[in-house]
């Protein structure tokens, strides 16, 4: 059985909380430039966490919400570049925001000056076929 520590759970929950609010965006954490992702997002689900009590899951979920919306001040008007810098500083891992484009997740490096709302709206437009 794979061991998952509370830091990994918090990172995963931060990703999930962010994607609940911005469904066409996601956060990836990496070990370093060009290396594979450390924390999976939106696909593993909670079933891979065996033996974790519900109260611990709820505590981690609450901590992720607190971090994003209160402590970090994430909002629709925050720029992608600002969020990436903030996440890297707080978690010590490079972070990247990706935008959904059809079946693909695209890097937002060319549009890092866009706000989270602009990025998410663009992803939604693409999903609806308004290119």
Structural features:
alpha+beta, 131 residues, 3 strands, three-stranded antiparallel β-sheet
Describe the structure.
With 131 residues, the protein is an alpha+beta fold. The protein has one domain. It is 45% helix and 12% strand. It is built from four helices and three strands, in the order αβααββα. It has helices at residues 6-21, 54-71, 80-91, 116-128; strands at 25-29, 95-101, 104-107. It has a three-stranded antiparallel sheet. A hairpin with a 2-residue loop joins strand 2 (95-101) and strand 3. Helix 1 crosses helix 2 (54-71). It is globular, with a radius of gyration of 15 Å. Mean pLDDT is 81; it is low at 35-53.
Number of helices: 4
Major sheet size, sense and barrel closure: 3 strands, antiparallel
Quaternary organization: single chain
**Fraction of residues in H or I helices:** 40-55%
Poorly predicted runs are 35-53
Q: Please state the CA-atom Rg, rounded to the nearest Å.
A: 15 Å
The whole-number mean of residue pLDDT values reads 81
Strand percentage, roughly?
5-15%
Overall 3D form: globular
Count of the domains: 1
Number of strands: 3
Query: What structural class should be given to the helix and strand makeup?
Result: alpha+beta
With strands numbered from the N-terminus, the spatial order across the biggest sheet is 1-2-3
Distance between the termini: 45 Å
Would you list the SSEs in sequence order as H and E? HEHHEEH
